[in-house]
């Protein structure tokens, strides 16, 4: 399968093309999809796997451990669907793949694949896709809310309302400010799209800057070397980190990066907690180098009650739920059922390829 295609629910114009093709033309089916679901059987977000599969596909079984699939060893499953609801997916996934060499494709029902990445998995050469593009718009909305939270000083506003205090104060505009984006993938670009509407200048970091050379939202795109990161930190009024957690990115935004930060900048993390040196971030918040931070992800989740972040007045804290709409995981499953699975059945290129060796 030759793939270099990525899906976005707002921008992709031909949704369900192959699902429709199968319905009107069953002869377009190239091969049957026999699916194992490495998921909690009680996971309600996976209802489409049992109720809405396209012609030419069959769900063999669902479970969280290899032994729960023993009865399907003679069925030659060729598709493995992996959900974050499987509590030990990192350990179980390589075992399932080793036990079922007939599996041709693994799909992960999330954008991040850090919960399955392992040394064992990196040694297995098998096509893998994810749900990239499903969660970007809600995270972009959160980013602009976080920018406005500090620009308009909402903590002060709410305190004044509670105290019935009619006291005017100056606020900041977002128009004309610079948004720096660390990790310019689908989420980062969704943030840039909204920030551009607000009149903000966009600069970004990504591993392959040339891929965004003609991006209409960005003024500049830098590489991911240390010098470029510090440059972005020094030029940005608002910094949003949407980088995945990989061997290369863990601890990437460190004390040196926060030392380079522009005065009164706001830091927003919605990617993965381990990308940030949280001790350095805490110190930058306490000593005033940062105006504030909006944090949806942390190195340890749930965030321990003794963590100092809970008590800092200049931190907007959320429990890793800023993409958690009531339907977000259902939609991620439906992307598999209506978009990628029909492509597999028709022998077409799959959307959203990922590389477990690189971690995204």
Tell me the distance between the termini: 18 Å
DSSP strand content: 15-25%
Q: Which structural class matches the secondary elements?
A: alpha/beta
Taking pLDDT < 50 over at least 5 consecutive residues as the criterion, the unreliable ranges are none
How big is the Rg? Answer: 22 Å
Measured as a percent range, the helix fraction is 25-40%
Give the overall average pLDDT: 95
Largest sheet: 7 strands, parallel
Order of helices and strands: HEHEEHEHEHHEHEEHEHEHEEH
Tally of DSSP β-strands? 12
Shape: elongated
Within the largest sheet, what's the order of strands?
8-7-6-9-10-11-12
Count, helices? 11
What does this structure look like?
Helices cover 30% and strands 15% of the residues. The protein has 360 residues and is α/β, with parallel strands linked by helices. A seven-stranded parallel β-sheet has the order 8-7-6-9-10-11-12, sandwiched between helices. A five-stranded parallel β-sheet has the order 2-1-3-4-5, with helices on both faces. Helix 1 (17-24) crosses helix 11 (328-345). The longest helix has 18 residues, at 328-345. The radius of gyration is 22 Å and the shape is elongated. The model has no long low-confidence stretch (mean pLDDT 95).
Give a topology summary:
Elements: H1 17-24, E1 33-38, H2 47-51, E2 57-63, E3 79-82, H3 89-99, E4 105-108, H4 119-122, E5 128-129, H5 136-151, H6 154-162, E6 178-182, H7 186-197, E7 201-205, E8 220-222, H8 226-235, E9 238-241, H9 255-259, E10 265-269, H10 278-286, E11 290-295, E12 315-317, H11 328-345
Parallel strand pairs: 1-2, 1-3, 3-4, 4-5, 6-7, 6-9, 7-8, 9-10, 10-11, 11-12
Helix pairs in contact: 1-11, 5-7
